[in-house]
Amino acid sequence: MTNKTQKSHSGTNAHKPKNTLTTKIIFIVLLLIALLTLASQIIPSDNADQAVNPNTYIELPDRKPLPHVTLEQAVKGEISTTALTDKWHMFLFGYTFCPDVCPVELSNLHQMMDALRKELPPEALPQVVFVSIDPDRDTPERMEAYVKHFDADFIGMTGKKTDLQALTMPLGISWKKEQTIDATGKVDKENYLVTHSTAIILSNPKAQVTGLFTPPHSAKDMAKAYQIAIQTEKN
């Protein structure tokens, strides 16, 4: 009787280590699953890294030609917008006396171009064009010298006020010369600001407007969105 009781107790004790070990294994597995789940939420995947902010680029439903106007560039002289059919173009509108926004946007575009140069062949790269909406102060030569400070491949253009209005209005680009009063109470014709839109217009090699990059601009997102845009156009 005593022996049986002892055997019974010893049999029960023999199962305890097994149950404890099983419990530990289950706990470790559950802990690993929890940690992996947490890591997947914290660490972005390759696909997540390639995602583009949907607000970066807005594709237009229809392809409309660039408004037909004549602009002026220091090297090539007068250029018709209808002749911009050699490659993709990105148009940023601003002016060289702009104290903050324009330098930031041109720097963003330079960073975008650096990223694209690593991914695309030269013929697929966009031509960045900085168009002045301050023709009273920005000459073609001044525009050209200004943009080269940001990127050697950028070009600067300007034009007559009537041509600039005919170009920007259909594109939804607004701009207004702000009146500044000097110390004598007169209108200062040399020192003034121009408020303007900062959307960047994209046109395809057929000189058709395909869409616009909306602010705030991220160089990384613009580079990815541009590659998607040109691929979409091919399809």
UniProtKB/TrEMBL annotation:
Keyword line: Copper, Disulfide bond, Membrane, Metal-binding, Transmembrane, Transmembrane helix
Superkingdom of origin: Bacteria
Nuclease as UniProt keyword: no
Family statement drawn from the similarity comment of this UniProt entry: Belongs to the SCO1/2 family.
PANTHER family, per database record: ELECTRON TRANSPORT PROTIN SCO1/SENC FAMILY MEMBER, LINALOOL DEHYDRATASE_ISOMERASE DOMAIN-CONTAINING PROTEIN
InterPro entries referenced in this protein's UniProt entry, alphabetically: SCO1/SenC (IPR003782), Thioredoxin-like_sf (IPR036249)
Source organism per UniProt: uncultured Thiotrichaceae bacterium
Disulfide-bond pairs as recorded: 98-102
Protein name: Cytochrome oxidase biogenesis protein Sco1/SenC/PrrC, putative copper metallochaperone
Membrane spanning residue stretches: 21-43
GO molecular function: metal ion binding
Binding, Cu cation: 98, 102, 196
